[in-house]
Amino acid sequence: MLGVFVCQCGTNIAATVSTDRVVQAAKSMLGVVHAESIQYTCSDPGQRAIIDAIQQKGLTRVVMAGCSPRMHETTFRRAIGRAGMNPFMLEMVNIREQCSWIHSDIDEATEKAIDLVRKGVARVRRQKPLQAGSSPVTRRALVIGGGVAGIQAALDIADAGIPVTLVEKSSTIGGNMARLDKTFPSLDCSSCILTPRMVEVKQHENIKLMVNSEVEKVRGYIGNFEIDIRKKASCVIEENCTGCLICQEKCPSKAPDDFNVCAGESKAISIPFSQAVPLVASLRKEYCRLFIKGKCSVCQKVCPAGAIDYEQEDIVVTEKFGAVVVATGFGLYDWKQSYPTYGMGMYPDVINALKYERLLSASGPTGGRIERPSDGKEPRDIVFISCIGSRDESVGRPQCCSIGCMYMAKQAILTKEHIPDSQSYIFYIDVRAAGKGYDEFTRRAQTDFGAIYIRGRVGKIYPRGGKLVVMGTDTLAGDQVEIEADLVVLATGLTPAEGAGQLARRLNISTDGQGFMAEGHPKLKPVETNTGGVFLAGACQGPKDIPASVAQAGAAAAKVIGLLSQEELETSPMVAEVNQLKCAGCFKCRDVCPYGAVEAQDARDGQVAHVIASLCQGCGLCNVACPPGVISLKGYTDNQLIAEVVEVLR
Amino acid sequence: MINLSQTVKEGAAVVAEIERRSGQRITACLQCGRCTSTCVAAFAFDYPPHRLMHLLQIGLVEEVLRSETAQLCLDCMTCSMRCPMKIDVAGVIETAKAIADEAGLRDTEPNLRLFRRGFLNNVCRHGRLHETTLLLWFNFRTGKLTNDLSLAPLLLRKKKVRIFPPRIKNMRQVRRLFQQVNRGAGPPG
Predict the structure, then answer these.
(1) ipTM (interface pTM)
(2) Of A199, A315, A334, A478, which sits most exposed with the smallest number of CB within 10 A?
């Protein structure tokens, strides 16, 4: 007793496919007792018509010819469930996205629609009733990345009473925001607003903070992830270290100061900045004299807390989580290779804006005095150049970095505050300041702080008599211009953080062309990913500023809280099943299963395969791999798929 | 080639002077170009109004003070009315004109000065502009007696100009206005 419902989707389908002809054709198909065409099947009256037909004609199987299953399969499963049918006795036939939308000839499109319906009828005739299972939910969340987005997400989830593990790659949380001097457009001191939140993370009873740690392996699925986290050896016993900094003072091995973007110098054992959380030193073996030359141990000798342990080894912790928030943030575009005319890094006074931020910061290596790197002099004429590695097809980066215009205006304002007789010049392509109070802020940089905005890209920078000559153009004056600058600051674009691609592969989530993590839907699923239970927060998803990152983190946290407030999750009944009587025990299925859902079970003559239904995600790999073809996917059996192909080829 | 580090520094004093006397902020100009879009005289200018504003922004004061724009601007104020940033663009140009005058930079177009004087004298005498006498006077003074004379029949027929000067109600007030201005800022024109 099979019913076929053909949706017109207004004119979306009906304009190219003659739904009446599809209905006529369906009526003559084997087993079909009812066929009708409905203007909008997903509407309330549409669903009621379907339910009425099921109840009046006693239908047991339904074919819905309309949009894609992704769009409305759940809607119609519920509808036929309400009519008293098994919800899985449904086949969605896509005659919209894969038919009416892509064809223009009515006859041909109609013929194709009929073929597709025939295929659907063949499959659903061989469908058996299925029962959805359920799996328990691990009430614990993992947040990857301890920047402002990760901090916000962790705090929001923890405040809801859910235990959170916050994993941070470096030795302190805070991320890029901790490096900023002030924030636009309010000019709030960045660390003044961030530090309390960092401390809150440390003190929160529901948050377990793991620094120097990285996610290494991910198993499981939504509600039940099992994740290996590698805690790298820092040669410092975290519980003992008091953050007294004596080791850093006495350490004889110099090391690059990553936190200050190499504006200053650091030591092999160090705490990156004074508000670091946790306030614990960590040792970088690649710069340590003991590990390079085999002789030193100064830090161990001077440490009053006995916190140094050179024998420390990496630890791998395996924990279960119900949900994951990715908040790995951003890195900066390395401009040196792509912009040869800007000196390729040969001129020490051409720096990126994050380094300049450290020079502006009172907690930076110069204590807030702007000193140019080459000779330590205070600069007078400062040139800012926007869109370095942004909006530039020639270096393969067409997108807008979305924050450059704002931070250039901010830095121009701060520069004037630091050096009142300085003059800032800003080369821009457009001033993009689309945010609350943002445009007013860039205007203020010009009217109140005298920054001169020049519309045009810079062609070349070269040194002349202790200064840097910046050759550009002023398209508004219509002429070439040159500026003798003391310092050039480049507004470089944002890239995904280092290692983000690898993490994405481990979590089985996709990335876009630039390597940023892909959201589930650009409009309607901005914090979800295509992998259930994995959410995104902050600049790992795309360039964004602090308020947007915090907002997205809050949204991701809300999704996690919603997910983890359920006792158990309904699982799809479309899972693999082994005909154990015929299984030869070769375990090819176990080898290919990405979810570890196949196990060996003892049988009379040796071992046979068994599928753990709660782990199986119904991907079908085992089905393909099985040599005798005795493992099959419920709802997508070989029998059903072959019948479909036969009908299409008929 | 414009050397910005030089022009910005060297022009700073004059730009500040224009800003002070006009009460306008040159830096507030967005370069949207609405002033030029509405300008009725831009076709005759060397620099359209928005360009003039930008030249001031980058300190090219010499170009502005010597520009034809500063001389030819009609002071119709349309640009000032339309400016989205509420900048009195005409006021800026007017100030540039005055500063150029004081510096003796505006001798490129003597007839312009003559016309402006005749215009104001005409208004002073009749209380409002009487085109016929102004044109006759201007043609007489420039020695081109037949200039634009062929337009006269059409203009008269369409009543665009009148043979006899207009009468206004309170001549005394107009005279007093002119006297006050003359006392304050020197002779008109």
Answers:
(1) 0.78
(2) A478
